Amino acid sequence: MKKFLVAAAALSCVPGVAFAQDEDQGANLFDGVRIEARLGYETPTVSGDGDVYKIGSAVSYGAELGYDLAVSNKVTVGPFVNYEFSGVELCEAADCLDVKSNLAAGARVGVALSPTAAIYGKLGYASLTIEASSGAASASDSKGGVYGALGVELSVSKNAYVNLEAAYADFGDFYGTGFNLQRRQASLGFGFRF
User: pTM (2 decimals)?
Assistant: First the structure.
């Protein structure tokens, strides 16, 4: 009789365990505060009259901070801000044009494709800092514009993730020249979610 009661008690726990597992599987694992390190390759350009001219191409590196709020078991929305340093430099004799950094901020929307994979899009504002130098004299200025990005994110553990992202920013007219300044970038991120 005791064995029967123990077996009945054990069986009564199974539905509760199954329900808890179903809840875990339905939870959105892409929500929460996150911080990530970013490494990219960027190409700032100026375009006009049907032509595109590269200022240069180089490695960029920086970090991003964001908060993703689950609005369903598949969709997240939230703010982000990232700051990246640039290695882009264009020189002719003693005259140089350096892209120093890029700041971007805005909103991110993500959609989970599976428990460990999601796609996301970003839209916001970006500010690119450029320094011009000639000999010992130098001056810097920032240009602001529209920023957008598309990416895919993969969970590598409960709290760690990697992502691959393509971003584009348009900063408008390049100092009254009639040419528009843009930034194109592909980046790899590694982050933690809390």
Answer: 0.81
**Which 8-state DSSP code applies to residue 27?**
S
| Residue 54 · residue 42 · CB < 8 Å | no
CA 39 → CA 11, 34, 78, 120, 147, distances in Å? Answer: 52, 16, 22, 18, 18
Q: How far is CA 99 from CA 85, 166, 180, in A?
A: 8, 19, 15
- pLDDT (tens digit, 9 = 90+) per residue, 70-79? 999 999 999 9
Give Cα 149 distance to the centre of its chain: 7
- Count CB-CB contacts under 10 A for residue 27: 12
Across the chain, which distance is largest between two alpha carbons, in Å? 95
Radius of gyration for the chain, computed over Cα atoms and rounded to the nearest angstrom = 24
Q: pLDDT by residue (tens digit) across 120-179?
A: 999 999 999 989 888 888 888 889 999 999 999 999 998 999 999 999 999 988 777 788
Whole-number Cα distances in Å, 3 to 17, 121, 136, 177: 21, 57, 90, 88
